[in-house]
Amino acid sequence: MPCYKIEGVVPVVHPTAYVHPTAVLIGDVQIGPRCYVGPTACLRGDFGRILLKEGANVQDTCVMHAFPGLDAVIEKDGHVGHGAVLHGCIVGEDSLIGMNAVVMDGAVIAPRSIVAATAFVKAGFTCEPESLIIGSPAKVHRKLSEQEIAWKQEGTGEYQRLTLRCLASMEECEPLSEVEPNRPQVDAGETQPKHKQ
Fold first, then answer.
1. Bridge partner residues of 55 (DSSP)
2. How far is the C-alpha of 85 from the C-alpha of 185, rounded, in Å?
3. What is the distance between the alpha carbons of residues 44 and 49, in angstroms, rounded to a whole number?
4. pLDDT tens over the chain, length 197 residues
5. What is the pTM of this model?
């Protein structure tokens, strides 16, 4: 993976985490146990610290950047959808940031909350736990239901299983020129590909 130290500070990746080879890590980045970092994500710890705590995921094309004096943190089991931008903010334990959402400096997303896709969370935003946050600028819409929290946790579990699948079997290869007979099919519900009948 593209990994760069700055001023002698080197990124740290726990051996049980998976960071895609196209993701970029710069400086004071710490990826904890069982984390997943997707293709072309950029985590730039050149102004402050970036922390991904146990079981967190940062998906494809996400950007994380700290602000001077403000770390960018994803707490345990935090879940960040494709294309989101996190800047000097804190994503609380077991919270979800939707696809293409932006969360700005000093914002704190409380535990077990969901920020909707494409939401814009202003600097300094705070909320209560289990909040549904939507809009631009984003506001708390209501409290999440138990079913919504369970749905989020199920999705995060899939990414934690994906981490194991990637560690076990992801490898660079050349594409085939045609589809082979009895082509296996990837099934996210299983740890091994199955053959389509």
1. none
2. 32
3. 9
4. 799 999 999 999 999 999 999 999 999 999 999 999 999 999 999 999 999 999 999 999 999 999 898 999 999 999 999 999 999 999 999 999 999 999 999 999 999 999 999 999 999 999 999 999 999 999 999 999 999 999 999 999 999 999 999 999 999 999 999 999 999 888 766 544 443 33
5. 0.92
What is the C-alpha to C-alpha distance for residues 142 and 147, in angstroms, rounded to an integer?
A: 14
Beta carbons of 122 and 138 less than 8 angstroms apart? yes
Q: How far is CA 94 from the centre of its chain?
A: 12
Phi first, then psi: give them for residue 166, nearest 5 degrees.
-65, -45
The residues that bridge with 51 in the sheet, in sequence order, are 30, 73
Chain center to CA of 122: 20
Is the separation of the CB atoms in 52 and 58 below 8 Å?
yes
DSSP per-residue letters across 131-190? EEEEETTEEEEEEPPHHHHHHHHHHHHHHHHHHHHHHHH----PPPSSPPTT-EE--TTS
Structural domains in the chain, CATH included, are 3-146 (2.160.10.10)
Beta bridge partners, 114, equal 96, 132
CB atoms within 10 A of CB 189: 7
Distance CA 127, CA 107 (A): 9
Indicate the DSSP class of residue 110: P
